[in-house]
Amino acid sequence: MYVLTIDQRGSRTHGDKVPALLAALDDIDVILPFERSVGDEIQGLLGEPGAVVEAAMRVLRLQEWYVGLGVGSVDLPLPASAREASGAAFVAAREAVESAKKLGDRVPVRVQSGADGDRTDGAWAAAAEAVLVLVGDVVRGRSAAEWRVLDALDAAPGVAQKDIAAQLGITPQAVSKAIVRSGRLEELNGRKAAVLLLSQLVSAGR
Asked: Cβ contacts of residue 18 below 8 Å, gap of 6+?
């Protein structure tokens, strides 16, 4: 399973943004919902790698959080709350988020396997982290204008670019250029790679 532990950056100067983040992650497919665990930190238990990647990218877009992903076993039976849960994945997520806090200006996401001393799991975790960092860098580097176009596209799947352009009051060429500049295709392909690697990491740990 996958545990995401997410801690706010600079909470003393920027205020408590946990409620807003919980709202942003409310529709993510989870096993145990995201909730405040302690202070300005939230935690959730997930079962699908696609949901993990989606949640991580939403968080990294905000540029206000450290992201730690722990992958491994959890203690059963599960409680009703992630805050009360335990297991190797939770320990790994804690280690990962603490490590993310030491990354400075780099993309603040770390992936940690809950399998003690397993070199194979460690290699898969490192590979998954590398892809998440690359995709996260693309997401974090977008302009407000590019996000305006991408958000409109995401809100209306299948709608032609010319219709999105009309909705936004810009030209179809501007929409096309924004998509290219934003690295949209690279992000989507990177997400697929991250999902495959995270799936393999779970399989390797069984």
From this structure: 8, 36, 40, 41, 42
Tokens of 139: 């997401």
Convert the pLDDT of each residue in 109-154 to its tens digit: 999 999 765 667 889 999 999 999 999 999 999 999 999 999 999 9
- Dist CA 80 CA 126 (whole Å): 31
Q: State the amino acid at position 198 in one-letter form.
A: L
Residue type, 163: D
Place of tokens 């699908």: 48
Residue of 196, 56, 48, 197 whose CA lies nearest to 140: 56
CATH architecture of 2-140+185-204: 2-Layer Sandwich (3.30)
pLDDT of residue 115: 78
